[in-house]
TrEMBL record:
PROSITE patterns: HTH_ARAC_FAMILY_2 (PS01124). PANTHER family: ARAC-FAMILY TRANSCRIPTIONAL REGULATOR, TRANSCRIPTIONAL REGULATORY PROTEIN. InterPro entries: AraC-bd, Homeodomain-like_sf, HTH-like, HTH_AraC, RmlC-like_jellyroll, Tscrpt_reg_AraC-type_HTH. Residues 169-267 form the HTH araC/xylS-type domain. Pfam families: AraC_binding, HTH_18. The keyword Cell membrane does not apply. Keywords: DNA-binding, Transcription, Transcription regulation. The lineage of its organism: Bacteria, Pseudomonadati, Bacteroidota, Flavobacteriia, Flavobacteriales. This is HTH araC/xylS-type domain-containing protein. The keyword Transcription regulation applies. It comes from Wandonia haliotis.
Length: 269
């Protein structure tokens, strides 16, 4: 292997936020270990190369580096900014599906130039203070994280979104904005006026996951929410998610989560 694989998270961390290290100017090409890295730069000049494509650094600017991407920095002036790291396991643990959708949506991006930075910088500062405080509150930092991700999307230059990214984003919107999920990729491909094969290719390109894997994550997230926040019987939850019977839902849930729905509900409530 000709490149380094870096891991900036402790084993029990799923999210980390820290100031961009001012001494980081030039790095060798490396990848990350199972996490998305979002880098906000407010100062600095030079280039950032991601998958052999070089981007000029012109703050305010955000870079998104997925675990499968090779990248390196060549910064010529003192940088300032914030680094946000989100582990892949995060989307399987959080119950706020809007937050999941925002993370998934931004993970399809590579670079965004921002029109306005003050409000985003303020939220990042509050997030940094909360997560690195003596007694961080998950409710608080999840709310701040959701706010900053939403503002990034809102403030970003929409011309930066590729067509493939737009289709991927539309797929996520169908999954996370829907009141009822259908466990069938072809159903969503038809709604997007594409084929299951093309949707699968787009998901692989944008997220390095199949369309069915992304659908499974959405179904499991919705199942966990209903198990924790409703009193619906397990068979009714399985039925609402399109499973043919309770035993099929129980096997599916245990295969992916490691617990049966009933056990998951008992340890989560």
């Amino acid at each position: 292997m000709l490149y380094e694989v870096k891991d900036k998270l402790k084993s029990d961390q799923v999210v980390k936020v820290a100031p961009f290290r001012k001494e980081v100017r030039k790095t060798t090409a490396h990848k990350h270990n199972k996490y998305l890295e979002i880098v906000l730069l407010t100062k600095g000049e030079g280039t950032h190369t991601i998958d052999m494509r070089s981007y000029e650094i012109h703050p305010p600017q955000i870079f998104f580096i997925r675990k499968d991407q090779l990248h390196h920095w060549d910064i010529t002036t003192e940088p300032e900014g914030v680094v946000l790291i989100i582990k892949n396991d995060f989307v399987r643990q959080v119950l706020d599906k809007e937050l999941i959708r925002l993370v998934e949506q931004l993970s399809s991006m590579t670079e965004l130039k921002l029109r306005e930075i003050e409000f985003i910088s303020d939220i990042f500062r509050l997030l940094l203070e909360e997560m690195n405080g003596e007694h961080p509150s998950q409710i608080v930092w999840e709310g701040l994280l959701k706010s900053v991700l939403y503002k990034i999307i809102q403030q970003g230059d929409r011309l930066s979104w590729s067509k493939l990214g737009t289709i991927y984003e539309a797929y996520l919107n169908l999954l996370y904005d829907s009141r009822e999920l259908v466990n069938n990729v072809a159903f969503y491909a038809e709604k997007l006026t594409t084929t299951p094969q093309n949707l699968n290719r787009i998901c692989r390109q944008q997220k390095n996951k199949s369309a069915s894997e992304i659908l499974a994550e959405a179904i499991l997230s919705e199942a966990k929410r209903k198990l924790v926040y409703t009193d619906l019987p397990v068979n009714a939850i399985g039925d609402s998610l399109g499973f043919k019977d309770a035993s099929h839902f129980t096997r599916y849930f245990k295969k992916h989560i490691g617990y049966t729905p009933s056990v998951y509900r008992s340890i989560s409530c």
